[in-house]
Amino acid sequence: MKIAVDVMGTDYGPKEIVKGAVDAVKAYGCEVVLVGDENIIKEQLILNKADKDSKISICNASQVIAMDEHPAIAVRRKKDASIVVASNLLRQKKCDALVSSGSTGAAVTSALFCVGRLPGVDKPCIATTIPSMKGATILLDSGAVVDAKPEHMTINAIMGNCYAEKLFNKSQPRVGLLNIGEEETKGNAQVLAAYPLLKELKQINFIGNVEGNDIPKGDVDVVVCDAFTGNVALKFGEGLANAIFTLMKESIMQGGILAKIGALLMKPALEKMKKHMDVQEYGGALLLGIKAPFMICHGNSKAKSITSAIRMTITLVEQNVVGAISDKIAEVQQGNEEIEG
Amino acid sequence: MKIAVDVMGTDYGPKEIVKGAVDAVKAYGCEVVLVGDENIIKEQLILNKADKDSKISICNASQVIAMDEHPAIAVRRKKDASIVVASNLLRQKKCDALVSSGSTGAAVTSALFCVGRLPGVDKPCIATTIPSMKGATILLDSGAVVDAKPEHMTINAIMGNCYAEKLFNKSQPRVGLLNIGEEETKGNAQVLAAYPLLKELKQINFIGNVEGNDIPKGDVDVVVCDAFTGNVALKFGEGLANAIFTLMKESIMQGGILAKIGALLMKPALEKMKKHMDVQEYGGALLLGIKAPFMICHGNSKAKSITSAIRMTITLVEQNVVGAISDKIAEVQQGNEEIEG
User: Fold this and answer.
1) Higher pLDDT, B324 or A333
2) Which one, A35, A134, A298, B222, has least CB within 10 Å?
């Protein structure tokens, strides 16, 4: 299996991405093709003592799309940008999957332009895996399409359902609609319209509305929401967790010698808890609705996240998630046509 | 100063509410009128050794609105529900403010029907105070009106600005629009329409878009959003913080004797951090746009939250927040009329 890794345009630079990819090759035995500035990549491979590794190849790309560039304009103009070159490798089947941690907007646009949508999918969506008390929950859409229509949310639910089946190895995962109350009559116009559509879907185990606090509890496997709400909630949660850990560290530093000894003794327990809640353990969010596995990582990904994202990508390729999604959507569409016919 | 406290319809029952009110009277010297079932309240006052306290009075209400009742129907039908009776005391100026921790929907409806809106306010909004790294941030609307129009969001920004000036004793608080990116061109149709309106407002210090993770950082004082997004994000954050603290406790319990000794030594530092991030320190959310101070607490409020909410309410009455909001809205409207004229 060969995975294309976009090395450019991230917050911490190619160093972290190359290291993460090298570690993944060592740990999981996959092949990777590193896409980006050839000289920078070679230099980093030497630093990681991996320049002679036959499982690692380089595909040069002379341009980079920065975080603040307009995605559609940049993807159209920069034909040799690393994300565009990597997406074309995926389209040409020169690799089995793609991992990127550059601009999310550029990645989504590049996936649409170069790789293309699955039949029956109007808009793609980003499925993020969030740690919970009982394991993890998939939240989608967490950032691809704002102002999604209720019909998009039902397609997203079907895709999320297939993804959860494969990722969690679980049949009939519980699918919920993110809302501000449990009752069917609660919510804004968008979710009020989406609810009956989801309820009708025979292909999923729809458990009704879920609220924000149900996500960390882990009583739901797939949470469907619009990209605006999903993105705001995710970032708020991320910021809050950071604030809690930072304040904890500060309190310990200000707490004198006893607090410091206490922290030292508690360290293994704290590390275990932090590992449980660490988003880096999942590493990436899958872009659903695209013809091939396309993994989007946080712009601030460090080596560990990239390694985790590659591990996750290998599983998704092995499990043929994209094929399962494609089949399920075809099944739903056929059902709809029969009803209409 | 006299504050009406709705004692009924909460998750933990009248016990916690009465105790919180008694503690507030002792701590802050205010008067309270407890609204609800007279017999239950008397019993609780005896248990709290406060049945002879001249600063505490009872106003009997024979009905209760439950959490799952339809707010508008229940408020209209149950004329003697505690929240309706308390709201009428506020309208008749028999008290200076109201604190409720029953059904939020019933409280908002009762406030609208019995107390009424300020001139120029079409829809009220709930302003929740969230702890941050640098103190606290006001998030509004956090649950009153879903599908708010951009014009409502500008009125909310003005009201939130006045509230922050008084609550944080800060001139020119920073007001941000909750979005999925910093750029003016980012977001869904609602925020794209609200942005230029907020930018034009001379009465506020608008700092542009803020993202979910900016809230816990504390670089913004007032965050404007629609009630759907605000409510989902708040509940997600609440659930996440709970999950972190629960997992921490579990890790310590499973971590053997050293982890337990460590936790004991770290306890003061951990308590300090928890106190900093504790929403109960604020206790209540102010319902803005109503003619008198109307404080809404979480349905699961314990005595401590009620005491905090009463302390906060006393400050808001002393500072005449409602008067300040009313004046500012009149000023904005006059400005608009002059431009139109």
Assistant:
1) B324
2) A134
Please choose, from the candidates A3, A27, A335, the residue with its C-alpha nearest in 3D space to the C-alpha of residue A200: A335
Bridge partners, B81 (sequence order): B63
Interface test with B, best of A215, A273, A279 (most B CBs within 10 A): A273
Task: Kindly state the average pLDDT of the residues A53-74.
Answer: 94
Interface of B with A in 201-240 (CB under 8 A): 211-217, 225-229, 231-240
Lowest mean pLDDT among A137-151, A192-206, B82-96, B307-321: A137-151
pLDDT at residue number A148:
86
**pLDDT-based confidence at A280, cuts 50/70/90?**
low
Those residues whose C-beta lies under 8 Å from the C-beta of residue B90, and which sit 6 or more positions away, are B4, B97, B98, B114, B115, B292, B294
Inter-axis angle of helices A256-276 and B256-276, nearest 10: 90
Q: Spell out which residues of chain B touch residue A225, defining contact as CB-CB under 8 Å.
A: 232
Among A231, A261, A273, beta carbon nearest to B251: A273
B67–A contact, CB cutoff 8 A: no
Contact A238 B213 (CB under 8 A): yes
pLDDT, position B340 = 67
Q: How confident is the model at residue B165 (pLDDT cuts 50, 70, 90)?
A: very high
Cα–Cα distance, A124 to B143 (Å, whole number): 30
Q: Residue A166 in contact with residue A130, Cβ under 8 Å?
A: no
Of B188, B228, B233, the CB nearest to A187: B228
Does A336 touch chain B if contact means CB atoms closer than 8 Å?
no
Distance from CA of A188 to the nearest CA of B (A): 5
B339: its two tokens: 């431009």
Asked if pLDDT for residue A29 goes beyond 70, the answer is: yes
Q: Which pLDDT does position A199 carry in this prediction?
A: 96
Residues from chain A that touch B228, judged by Cβ atoms under 8 A, are 180, 187-188, 191, 229
Q: Which long-range contacts (CB under 8 A, 24 or more apart) does B259-263 make?
A: B259/A265, B259/A266, B259/A268, B259/A269, B261/A262, B261/A265, B262/A261, B262/A262, B262/A263, B262/A264, B262/A265, B262/A266, B262/A267, B262/A269, B263/A262, B263/A266, B263/A269
What confidence score (pLDDT) does residue B248 get?
Answer: 83
Q: Could you give the percent of chain A with pLDDT greater than 70?
A: 98
Asked whether B125 and B289 are in contact (CB, 8 A), the reply is yes
Over residues B30-72, the pLDDT tens digits come to 999 999 999 999 999 999 999 999 999 999 999 999 988 899 9
Angle of the B256-276 helix axis to the A227-254 helix axis, nearest 10: 110
Interface probe with A: pick from B229, B260, B279, most Cβ of A within 10 Å: B229
Question: A147: which chain B residues are within 8 Å (Cβ-Cβ)?
Answer: 188-189
Give me the residue from A146, A179, A236 closest to B215, CB to CB.
A236
- Category of A29 on φ-ψ map: left (φ > 0), alpha (ψ -120 to 50) or beta: left
Find chain B residues with C-beta within 8 A of A191's C-beta: 228
- Asked if residue B296 lies in contact with residue B104, where contact means CB atoms within 8 angstroms, the answer is yes
- How far apart CA A69 and CA B16 sit, in angstroms, is 54
Q: How many CB pairs under 8 A join A and B?
A: 200
Partner residue facing A133 (CB), from B232, B247, B267 = B247
Average pLDDT over every residue of A115-140: 94
Instruction: Please give the Cα distance from B135 to B282 (Å, whole number).
Output: 11
**pLDDT tens digit string along A232-273?**
999 999 898 888 888 888 888 887 888 888 888 888 877 877
Compute the nearest-CA separation of B156 from chain A (Å). 18
